[in-house]
Write a structure and sequence with these properties.
By secondary structure, the protein is α/β, with parallel strands linked by helices. It contains 10 helices and 12 strands. It has helices at 29-45, 58-70, 87-95, 123-137, 157-170, 188-201, 213-225, 243-250, 265-277, 294-300; strands at residues 18-23, 48-53, 75-78, 100-103, 117-120, 145-151, 176-183, 207-210, 235-240, 256-259, 284-286, 291-292. The structure holds beta-D-fucofuranose. The site of beta-D-fucofuranose (GYE) has 13 residues, from helix 1 and strand 9. Residues 287-306 are annotated as: Disordered.
Length: 306
């Protein structure tokens, strides 16, 4: 990539960095915490943030990115709603000489020179940790263990990867059976709706694996509405560990959560500064995360910031 040694900031002689950020939407507690982290970190770092909410639509993100190019921002960061279909617009950004930082979600572009780095979690590992917990939980028990899965947004990196990781972890034992799997678009409302349909179609559900807390929380409403006890009659595994999810875990309605940190803002701003200066940055920046049982949730809850 080209790296001129010139002044950061193209406009008006100011050396403040302008960052265009295209967010996925406001679909979950995770997303709200992520937006807050990015906005606060930009302020803290003295970076001018142009923030755009795509309402879970790729076409809106593409429009936002094109408008950032026109506004001659110094850097563009975005959290791609789905993995594919970015090559054309990313080529346009590259031709404009603007560095791109993928935040939270990956793209499947073969040409990795279209972006400078990707900061976020390893979603495959989150799925694996979820599956490994389940394997331990049913150790020594005979099957079948009937699992329903609430997938995240179709085509998104976290939905693809969490499904993959979970599937790999439970594959070793044929007693684990995924009897239904459908998208709940990472929202509470859809999680509830799809779980209601699962409960109508299947009388013998043992486990729910939801790709995020919010869908799990929606599903809990559906399970209670059907006269069943979440966490007991149906075991529930989710991903994220936002406050509402952690509360349900502490209350025994969720059994296990694999953490996914939304607090990407400070690291993102550091990377933006370096990218704009033309400094070298790693191609991949991984977030550190853990897992929670009900007991661990009780301990962690008082200090949970989101
Ligand atoms: O798990 C979910 C959100 O991309 C990691 O998106 C993120 C996911 C997160 O809607 O709650």
């Amino acid at each position: 990539t080209a790296c001129g040694g010139g002044d950061a900031g193209s406009g008006g002689g100011s050396d403040r960095i302008t960052l265009g950020f295209s967010q996925v939407g406001a679909e979950s507690g995770w997303r709200t915490a992520n937006t807050k982290s990015v906005q606060e970190a930009a302020k803290e770092a003295g970076i001018d943030l142009k923030f755009s909410d795509a309402q879970q639509k790729q076409e809106n993100q593409i429009k936002a990115i094109r408008s950032f190019i026109q506004q001659k921002v110094d850097a563009i960061a975005f959290s791609p709603v789905v993995e594919s279909g970015w090559d054309t617009v990313l080529k346009e950004v590259k031709d404009a000489g603007i560095p791109v930082i993928l935040t939270d979600r990956a793209v499947d572009s073969a040409d990795t020179s279209l972006y400078r780095t990707f900061i976020g979690s390893d979603f495959v590992i989150e799925g694996q940790k979820s599956g490994e917990w389940l394997v331990k939980e049913y150790e020594g028990e005979s099957g079948p263990v009937n699992i329903v899965e609430l997938q995240g947004t179709t085509g998104s990196a976290p939905a693809n990867d969490r499904k993959k990781g979970f599937g790999e972890a439970i594959a070793a034992d044929p007693k684990f059976k995924i009897i239904a799997s459908q998208t709940g678009d990472f929202t509470r409302a859809k999680g509830k709706e799809v779980m209601e349909a699962f409960l109508k179609a299947h009388k013998d559900i043992d486990v729910l694996f939801a790709h995020n807390d919010d869908m799990g929380l929606g599903a809990i409403e559906a399970i209670e509405g059907a006269g069943l006890k979440p966490g007991t009659d149906i075991k529930i595994i989710t991903i994220d560990a936002v406050r509402d999810g952690m509360q349900a875990l502490a209350d025994g309605k969720i059994n296990f959560i694999a953490e996914c940190s939304p607090l990407l803002g400070p690291q993102l701003m550091d990377l933006v500064k370096k990218a704009v200066k033309g400094e070298q940055i790693p191609q991949r920046v991984l977030t550190e995360e853990t897992t929670f049982t009900p007991e661990q949730a009780k301990t962690a809850l008082p200090d949970r910031k989101y």
